[in-house]
Specification:
By secondary structure, the chain is an alpha/beta fold. It has eight helices and nine strands.
Length: 270
């Protein structure tokens, strides 16, 4: 919740975000509680952790989305004191393109829903964004005509079309092959430069390549910890940047050690 009046109008430039007292429970079972997270304005933060630990739930809490079957608590506040509603773009793991619409109309879906239509200026912007992701020539195609990587590039263009200062990304590259993932990471880093981005991932190499800071969500009970210093190389970092391999191995070992502890602590765990 946001309390108090601010003396300036909300901005659409980069904003910082503070999450405090975040908690998640299902059927009375606590998944995590009292989690705090700060997103620095204009930077990428990676939320790294094993599957099922609650990463997506924390992302949805920030987005103000209800958790199906679960209960979330906590406060989320923008650095300028204004509500985040209307200033968030969300990119999911699945592209969620509407099969009956053309590619360009999928990019324009948010504009269409808010304004019940779109004008020539909107379509020009959408076409420019499709050009930025290398798909301007496919603007009139339907999603079924595109590969998985192409569809996810359309989803990125749709996210950019929203032109929001805070971008939440829920494992958007995890279903892609290695080469496509590598290229789309570069495209996303370039096109989202200057935005505040929270990237949920279970891949240490991806977290290291794309983030200014890594927050590790793991443990029993689940805790959020800072993953430590990152290689002093601008993002997107090349995979052979100094220190990358060692840090990736260290993060992977942390996740593996935690998984082993959780397995021992859970009777009958496989």
């Amino acid at each position: 919740m946001i309390s108090g009046a601010a003396s300036v109008e909300p901005t659409h430039s980069s904003i910082g975000v503070a999450v405090a007292g975040a908690g998640l429970s299902f059927a009375g079972r606590t998944i995590f509680q009292n989690v705090s997270l700060t997103l620095a304005a204009g930077e990428w933060t990676a939320l790294l952790g094993p599957s099922g630990v609650g990463k997506t739930s924390l992302l949805r809490l920030i987005a103000g989305l209800p958790e199906d079957g679960g209960v979330t608590v906590g406060s989320v506040q923008a650095s300028d004191g204004y509500p985040l509603a209307g200033r968030i773009a969300y990119m999911a793991q699945r592209d969620l393109l509407l099969p009956w619409l053309s590619i360009i109309d999928n990019v324009l879906i948010g504009v269409r829903l808010r304004r019940h239509g779109n004008d020539a200026k909107d379509r020009q912007k959408a076409l420019h964004l499709l050009d930025q992701v290398g798909l301007a020539a496919r603007a009139q195609d339907r999603p079924a005509a595109l590969s998985g990587g192409m569809r996810q590039r359309v989803a990125l263009a749709r996210t950019l079309m929203e032109d929001r200062p805070l971008v939440l990304m829920d494992e958007p590259f995890s279903a892609l092959d290695a080469v496509t993932r590598f290229r789309l990471q570069e495209t996303a880093a370039r096109l989202l430069s200057g935005r505040t981005v929270l990237l949920v991932t279970h891949d240490p190499s991806e977290a290291l390549r794309l983030s200014d800071r890594i927050a590790l969500l793991a443990g029993t009970p689940v805790q959020l910890t800072d993953a430590g210093s990152l290689p002093d190389v601008p993002i997107p970092r090349p995979l052979d940047a100094p220190g990358m391999a060692a840090r990736a191995a260290s993060l992977l070992q942390q996740l593996a050690d935690q998984d082993a502890r959780d397995t021992i602590a859970t009777p009958g765990a496989a």
